[in-house]
Task: structure prediction
Amino acid sequence: MSSTIETEARVTDYPQSSGIRYLLSWILWPGLLASCMFAVITGLNRGLDPVLTLFSVYFVLIVCIAILERVMPHEPSWNKNDGQIGNDIFHTIVNYIVVGAVVEAAVVALIAKLVMLSTTLTSASIWPVDWPVWAQFILLLFVGEAGSYTAHRISHEVPFLWRFHAVHHSATSLYWLNTGRFHTIDVIETVVLALPLPLLLGAPAELMFLFTCFTMFVGVLSHCNIEMRFGILDWIFNTPGVHRWHHSTVIEEGNTNYGENLMVYDVLLGTHFRPGRQIHVVGTDTPVPKSILGQMIKPLTGYKE
Result:
């Protein structure tokens, strides 16, 4: 990342607009997120397969985002082919989905054994299962965010870990597909640090599934190239409005907004950044190779200018 602030052209705000486009820019993010969660919960209540339900809803969300990115883009140039589509697909399928699922399964299995042993010894569960489901879910968002925030922040501030996370930040445009643009080591580090705490506290499996759904929906929405307005939501959730600044080429701007779902720890720890204008240039000065092989191998050996 660059350490100097660039020209005003990169941070211009949206032009004044009115009518349906302006209205949509305010309601799309909360509307899409709420609709997706409602669809998943409805499917579960009707006895549908959880995984099939999640991926069906996720697919519909992606289609909606892809269309909206063409109809009302945040940055029109981001809709052009950046030569990384194949790489984004590889990282998403191999690293983000396959490796992520394997590591999550391993962590869940290990934590399950520890929780089972702990419960056997103490005959008590820490998680407040008698709370209303909505209250448990809010608690889970806060608990889960602690690990996610930590994992994300150190991936920026620890040079060795930045080697791998730089692959994600090497994208020069943000759109739905590069949501899953992560190196294998980056995925492993995130899962290992983010997942254990809620599991150790005994969060129910059904609640963890809803948490996973919420995280996936917020994740793809935070990378979408759609003109949106957020207001106070930028201070609560990981919206595109704050996440685009996290992808800034300027170090002081990019080393902010680490939250995966919520901005609570960013606000509390002073890493929240939302200057009230739009950013249109993203990327990193770290010389990440363009080839998929280079993106997988170079982080292991270190980058050289």
Remarks:
- Confidence is low (pLDDT under 50) at residues 1-9.
- DSSP finds twelve helices and no strands in the chain.
